[in-house]
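Researcher: Quick sanity check before group meeting.
Model: Go ahead. Protein one:
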Amino acid sequence: MSRKLLAVLVSMFLIVSSVGADLDMGKDYKVPDISPIKVMEDGKEVVITLADAFEYHGHPCPGVCVGFRALTHAIELLWGDAVPERDDLIVFSRGPMSGLLDIFTLATYGDLKAKADAVTQATPGPLIPKGMTAGRDKFRFTIIRKSTGDAVDIKLNRDQFPQDFFSLKKKIKSEKASDAEKKQMDAYKREMVR
């Protein structure tokens, strides 16, 4: 494993922060201050902060954080100090988690929700391919610089999420979780926020 890739994985572990919509972060919560994602569109630099990504997604969540850090490091590795054109950036994700899809959409296409709202007055959700499932092994991405064909593969260590995180999340979403299980998920999320 290269040192750069190891640095990416360590950095992604440190920033895997945040929570689901049902967790009240409180008024003192501060979004981690990390370098923004920068892309060019129509000759203008677009700056996307982690706070912007959370707002686009609707709430802080681990998937947004992981995807954000993956993009930040991939852009650094593929473009160096240059700012990529939005349409030169391609992202393949093996995971259908909505947080990942939202940050990748925001970086590669822009605010599709606002664009759709202006035309249809509807807010689309992320397009999750049928048959894909969420899980600890799904945090794998290939980020490509289209103009050169260069690519970076990033895989988050599966142990960054508790073993039962996704099964518990699914149980809570289906409203079959006990109060103790809801508290456990809340504890997991709070630990990720630190």
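Researcher: Fine. The other one?
Model: Protein two, sequence then structure:
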Amino acid sequence: MRCLAVLMLTWLGVSGAAQAQEFANDQFHAFNMAVVDKRILPAYRTLADAAIELQQSSEALCADRSQAKLSTVKSRFHQFTDAWMAIQYFRIGPVEFAFRSSHIQYWPDKHNVVSKQLAKLLSKQDPTVLEPENFRDVSAGLQGLSALERVIFSSDSEEKLLASADDAPYRCALLVAIAHNLAWMTNAIVRDWESGKNAFRTQVLAANDESGSDFFADPTELAYQILSRLRESVQAVHDLKIGRPLGKAGSRPKPRRAEMWRSERSLENVRQNLEVVADYFADTGPLSIFSESESAHERIDSADWHLGAALKALAGIESISATSLESAPTIEALKLAQSQLDDAIESIAKLLVALGGSAGFNSLDGD
């Protein structure tokens, strides 16, 4: 059904191009700058600051492997992940340079690659691999949150990190290497956005010039990309963050397919993702600049309503976990949320068309 809807929306793109004449480039530029300056850059700065605190707490744990220090590391993990969930959707610009987004979080991991590579690394205990310059070249799965979560939240992680076992110091050194790498990547993202004549923010500004910029021919190009990423974020929640643990119709739920199930963050991540996207469609959100158009206003309101309905459905459940997925009310709530997200995805796609873009491409659709 979604493929048919996409084909119909692509066909409607012809009329969308005509509707886009309602909007001036200056409106798209104002939208882009509001997004970049009020949402994207503050979110990346928060992420980079959280990464530094995570690194510092990891170093403190390795200097004194105690329960109190480990608790602080876990708290800093949650703080960093909160910051990542607030910007996870924005797969544009510096976060995509050198595949940084997948290095920050390698997920979904359909073949449990991270666990296999982590076991191999811990069995060899090669200290040279953990040196910053070398660690940047290891597999993406080992460099970020997916490996970090396993190191500090696996069922036996406390025993293996805090005990006097032979490999405890190496595990702690690995924890520091991952945290250091996250700090290095996230601070590099901020620098790439803000520093130098080729700063990505400068490229966004230049898109409004007559000649465009190195990345964007005009402001509409970035605006359409932002909307596409918002739609893809909602679809990722629908298909991956809810759909994978729910399992296919007629099969049993698969709770270990949920995102970050070890740290019990699966539902919180879903909520945070949807709240960030919903903020764009609120009355005072950045998309309100297009609300003078009746067709755009209708679709903005529709997306806002359905995202709110999905969040309301999720408010009645406590977690996405092995226990909760045995509960019929939880399953019903998750399916209701998915239904609302389907409608939100369609509304965002129609908004893209109303603004002159195309709803035909989605990077989550696969081959």
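Researcher: One line on it for the slide.
Model: The radius of gyration is 22 Å.
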